[in-house]
Each structure stands twice: as C-alpha cells, then as structure tokens.
Amino acid sequence: MSKSTAAETERATLDGDENGRTRLFDGEPKTIQLMLGAGESIPAHKHPGRDIVFFLRSGAVDLTLGDETLSLSPGDIVRFDGDQDISPAAAADSEALLVLAASSE
C-alpha cells in the first residue's frame, strides 16, 4: 500500500475581520485578504525575499511601489518584487487578495 504525498486540500472564505487583514491559510505561500475603507492606507513597508501578487476584487486602490503609483480598478492583478517599498491607499472601500510567495531568485 503506497502512502499519498499530495498536500491536504484547504478551503477559506473571504469574510474579513476587524483589522482589515486576514491570513487565509497557514504555511506557504502566505495568502492575505486585505480590506481598506475609503481613505485608509498602509504605510510604506517591504516584504524582502517575496514575490507578491495583488488582486483587487472591489473598490479602487492607488498602489505605490517604490517611486511608481498604479491606480487599480476591480479585476486588476499586479505582480511585483517585495524588496521595494509598498504602500496601498484606498480611494474607495476596497478588498484585495494578496499572495506572498518566497522569491525564486
């Protein structure tokens, strides 16, 4: 009898919590639901050694990456290097899904 090496299937629901950031799964890759109210922002910070995918589900976010600011609309997906300064600012109530994976380099 052989033992299965497949990872267990995990499931999460995008409900959010009071602080606006919910880690959806334990382990890697780190998967976060981010909810920001209109006018809210997160100060510039870095995620060294990570590749990040930012998927805006709803709202409007100005995402500053280093010296560049991208205005995102629902459905926009951005992939970027976490070694640069990152600062999302919500122009409207917004919800995003972020995946932070260990950099392959």
Q: What kind of sheet is the major sheet?
A: 6 strands, antiparallel
SS-based structural class? mainly beta
Query: Span between N and C termini?
Result: 38 Å
Q: CATH homologous superfamily - what is it?
A: Jelly Rolls
Q: How much helix, percentage-wise, in residues?
A: under 10%
Low-confidence stretches: 1-5
Give the mean pLDDT. Answer: 88
InterPro entries: Cupin_2 (IPR013096), RmlC-like_jellyroll (IPR014710), RmlC_Cupin_sf (IPR011051)
Protein name: Cupin
Lay out the secondary structure:
Layout: E1 21-23, E2 30-36, E3 50-65, E4 68-72, E5 77-81, E6 86-102
Antiparallel strand pairs: 1-2, 2-6, 3-4, 3-5, 3-6
